[in-house]
């Protein structure tokens, strides 16, 4: 019988005859991989929605005080930006997270009534708000969650705002957002004369100048005209704001803890397997198996557990992400779409977890002396 068939036969026999333990181990590593897929998928989707929002609006550069979301920029700096030769238009805005009801929180944007940002919205009912009036437009998803229609009143921070429009946005973030007149959001947020950022749309690049060169040129112009502020390309801004960074950190941190628990579960299973099969290992050594054969056998079993648990976890993770994309609390910031690269990463992580978990038990099993193992009762 070939070595490969022997590995498969012994591995399958060991895993099958201890079915309950095997199932518990698969469930443990499966939950760890499910956490990895769901949480990392959640954070990646969150970042993608930010990028989509920037791309749909045609924003090229975000001007901020620093790279975090909670920036505060003087609204008067907009006049300086509009004088720059490469700037076509600007959109001063405020971005905040607000509790609209005890069950529903949402992103709140503060825009001016004439901003170019409206070009990416499609109104399903009603229309734009007016500057200086207590009016609000709602993303279609948020309107459904709040059960609001055009003409209803929405209480925001103790002020009643009339719903004048419901729109369909290009991203889940916009679908679940409330958009207010900039001056009204400044008032209720005590940010008079301040904005979170300026979104900048550039003029077309001159002939012979690449988009990348033109973008860097515009960045230099903006930062020279407004010392202390940063001009960040829209895609970079989407990937590196405070909310996205926090989502990535939480996803990887939680996933790492879950993976460690899963690895310990496989390690415990393989350690018990080696202990219970001491005599069997001695017989294998006596009939000619080398140390490396034993080591490979145990690592093979651990890898099978990791791989099978990974496949199981991917199924759980995809289901969890779909659930999150439908919950009112999270539907506005995540979609159920998962990049194939994440699924490949999940399988790789699961297999690696199995290899790591089986390393010490495999080493201990390979070290067993045939004579001592045969004497074991």
Automatic annotation (TrEMBL):
Signal peptide: none annotated. The keyword Disulfide bond does not apply. Residues 255-370 form the ABC3 transporter permease C-terminal domain. It comes from Acidicapsa dinghuensis. The keyword Ion transport does not apply. Residues 22-213 form the MacB-like periplasmic core domain. Keywords: Cell membrane, Membrane, Transmembrane, Transmembrane helix. This is ABC transporter permease. The chain crosses the membrane at residues 20-42, 249-271, 292-318, 338-360.
């Amino acid at each position: 019988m070939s070595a490969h068939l022997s590995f498969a036969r012994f591995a399958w026999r060991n895993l099958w005859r201890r079915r309950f333990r095997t199932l518990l181990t698969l469930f443990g590593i499966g939950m760890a991989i499910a956490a990895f897929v769901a949480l990392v998928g959640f954070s990646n989707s969150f970042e993608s929605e930010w990028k989509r929002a920037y791309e749909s609006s045609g924003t090229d550069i975000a001007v901020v005080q620093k790279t975090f979301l909670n920036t505060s920029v003087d609204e008067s700096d907009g006049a300086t930006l509009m004088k720059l030769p490469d700037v076509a238009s600007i959109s001063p805005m405020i971005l905040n997270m607000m509790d609209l009801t005890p069950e529903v929180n949402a992103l709140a944007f503060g825009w001016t009534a004439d901003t170019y940002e409206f070009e990416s919205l499609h109104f399903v009912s009603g229309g734009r708000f007016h500057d200086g009036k207590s009016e609000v437009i709602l993303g279609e998803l948020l309107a459904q969650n709040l059960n609001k229609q055009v003409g209803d009143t929405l209480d925001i921070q103790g002020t009643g705002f009339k719903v004048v429009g419901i729109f369909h946005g290009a991203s889940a973030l916009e679908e679940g957002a409330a958009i207010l007149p900039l001056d009204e959001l400044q008032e209720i947020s005590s940010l008079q004369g301040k904005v979170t950022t300026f979104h900048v749309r550039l003029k077309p690049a001159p002939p012979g100048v690449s988009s990348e060169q033109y973008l860097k040129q515009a960045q230099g112009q903006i930062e020279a005209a407004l010392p202390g502020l940063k001009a960040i390309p829209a895609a970079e801004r989407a990937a590196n704001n405070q909310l996205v960074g926090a989502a990535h950190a939480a996803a990887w941190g939680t996933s790492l803890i879950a993976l460690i628990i899963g690895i310990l579960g496989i390690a415990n299973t393989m350690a018990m397997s080696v202990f219970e099969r001491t005599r069997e290992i001695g017989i294998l050594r006596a009939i000619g198996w080398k140390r490396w054969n034993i080591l490979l056998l145990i690592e093979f079993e651990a890898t099978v557990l990791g791989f099978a648990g990974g496949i199981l976890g991917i199924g759980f993770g995809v289901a969890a992400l779909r659930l999150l994309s439908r919950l009112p609390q999270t539907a506005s910031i995540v979609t159920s779409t998962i990049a194939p690269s994440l699924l490949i990463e999940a399988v790789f992580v699961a297999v690696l977890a199995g290899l790591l978990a089986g390393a010490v038990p495999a080493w201990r099993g390979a070290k067993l002396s045939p004579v001592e193992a045969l004497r074991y009762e």
